[in-house]
Amino acid sequence: RPDFKLAPSILSADFARLGEEVDNVLAAGADMVHFDVMDNHYVPNLTIGPMVCEALRKHGVTAPIDVHLMVKPVDRIISDFIEAGASYITFHPEASEHIDRSLQLIRDGGCQAGLVFNPATPLSYLDYVMDKIDMILLMSVNPGFGGQSFLPSTLGKLHEAKQRIEDSGRDIRLEVDGGVKVDNILEIARAGADTFVAGSAIFKAFSESDPNRYDSVVRAF
Ligand code: DX5
Ligand code: ZN
Asked: Phi and psi (nearest 5°) for 108?
C-alpha cells in the first residue's frame, strides 16, 4: 500500500486567520500544507509569496510545506522559498527557460524538487530529468483557481506517470491537484496517485467557526 498523503491547499483557507486554519487542518490529520503561488502573469490570479511561507514557519508549522509555483520566471523566487522554509518546490516546465537548472537550484537548496503538468502538458518534459525529480504533480484542472471540477483525462495520465516512476526505480511522489473530493479520491488513488491536494473540499466544507470542524472531513479523506 502506498504511503498516502493529504495536502490541503490553503488557497481556500481564510487568509485573515491563516495560522489557525493551518493548525486546525494539521491537527485534524493532514500531512502537509499545499501552498499555491500565483503571479497574475503565468496564471490569472494573485496569491501569496515567500513572506507568508516564512510567517507560517515562525508561527510554528513544522509539517512539510509543498510550494506549487505558478509563476514565470521561476528561478528568482526559488531561492526566496528555500530561505522561507519550503519543503517541496514544484514549478511548471513551460514557465522555466532552463528546466534542469531550476530543478538543480531547488535541490541545491536542500528542498525536494518537482515538475507540474497542466492538463494539456505532455509528460515528455520528464525525459531527461527523472534523476532530479522528487515529485510529479499532475493538474486535474487548469491552474489559477480553486473550486473547479476534476478533469477525467487526468486518470489515464496518472497511469502513464506512475509507469514512468516505476521504470525509473526512484522514490518519487505522484501528486494530483484540482477538484479532488471525498467521492472521487478512491479512483484517483487507483490510477496511481499517492499525494492528494484538496482545497475547497476541505476549507469550504464548513461555514461555522468551530475549531474542530476539519476533523470529520479530513477523516473522510
Ligand atoms: C489551482 C491550485 C489548486 C487549488 C485546488 O490552480 O493549484 O491547488 O487550490 O483547489 P480545489 O481542491 O478546490 O480544486
Ligand atoms: Zn496547487
From this structure: -60, -30
